[in-house]
Amino acid sequence: MALPNIDDAATKFAKQVNDALTAFRADAAKKDNKKPEELADLKVKVSTLAVTKVRKPKEQAEQIVKGVSWTCSSAHMSDNARHVDLSKDGKYVVAPSKDLSADEFKAFKDAWNAAMKANGLLNYKAKDGYDEGDAYHLELPDAKLPVSDKRVQECLTEYADMTRNDGKKKNVAFEKDSTIKKWLDDWEKKNSK
Ligand SMILES: [Zn+2]
User: Fold this and answer.
1) Average pLDDT over the chain, rounded to whole?
2) What is the mean pLDDT of residues 155-159?
3) Distance of CA 61 from the midpoint of ligand 1 (Å)
4) What spacing in Å lies between the alpha carbon of 124 and ligand 1's midpoint?
5) CA gap 114, 19 in Å, rounded
6) How distant, in Å, are the alpha carbons of 20, 44, 106 from that of 41?
7) According to the model, what pLDDT value does residue 27 have?
8) Alpha-carbon distance 34 to 37, whole Å?
9) 168 — alpha (psi -120 to 50), left (phi > 0) or beta?
10) Alpha carbon of 27 to ligand 1 centroid (Å)
11) Cα(118)–Cα(172) distance, rounded to whole angstroms?
């Protein structure tokens, strides 16, 4: 079965979350005898930053070296992942669990989880539900690439070259995985200068 389109899924997802957040704001205002506009405005938006869309193997390796990704098997490389960012009164929210009030966070998380389910989207671990490890990343099922995939091999090669030959800092968490560790050990035997 063909995968649904990630842009369609992310757009529908964002609309559903925003509808729920608008309803939450109206309810909260009613309880406080206020107008909705007097309360914080929570909104999500599909990110248009290039790095949150499709990535080439080298770009993926750069994300790992930067310490903002921990995998060469990323769904971004098969163009099956998007980021949907949350803002509060127009300001990007870094960590919803810390930067929102308890009520706001609950409303946001509930809306997020429901919209994930409704649109068949998974978190960065390819699992159900909101996960703040990489909060705004959403992907389609079966989108992660196997190590044998040519793009993953290229990403590993780029990473190895950057960290072994160009003096870039290793990503310790990334190298913890036993398959990756073995791949890098083998690469070093063959390629280290
Ligand atoms: Zn991502």
Assistant:
1) 95
2) 98
3) 13
4) 7
5) 12
6) 12, 10, 15
7) 97
8) 8
9) beta
10) 32
11) 36
Nearest CA to 158 out of 82, 74, 75, 48 is that of 74
| Ligand 1 centroid from CA 77, angstroms | 10
CA of 112 to the centre of ligand 1 (A): 16
Pick the closest to residue 162 from 91, 85, 60 (CA basis): 60
Taking the C-alpha atoms of residue 159 and residue 157, their distance in angstroms, rounded to an integer, is: 5
State mean pLDDT over 68-82.
95
E strands of 2-122, at which residues?
42-46, 81-88, 91-92
The two structure tokens encoding residue 177: 């995985």
For 46, residues 6+ apart whose C-beta sits below 8 A from its C-beta are 7, 10, 11, 14, 82, 83, 84
How far away, in angstroms, is 81 Cα from ligand 1 center?
6
CA distance 165 to 193: 7
User: Residue 88 in contact with residue 188, Cβ under 8 Å?
Assistant: no
Structure tokens at 125: 């671990």
84 within 8 A of 44, measured Cβ to Cβ:
yes
Best CA proximity match to 146, nearest among 161, 126, 172: 126
Amino acid at 37: E
How far does residue 186's CA lie from ligand 1's centre (Å)? 28
Q: What percent of the chain has pLDDT over 90?
A: 95
pLDDT reported for residue 4 = 80
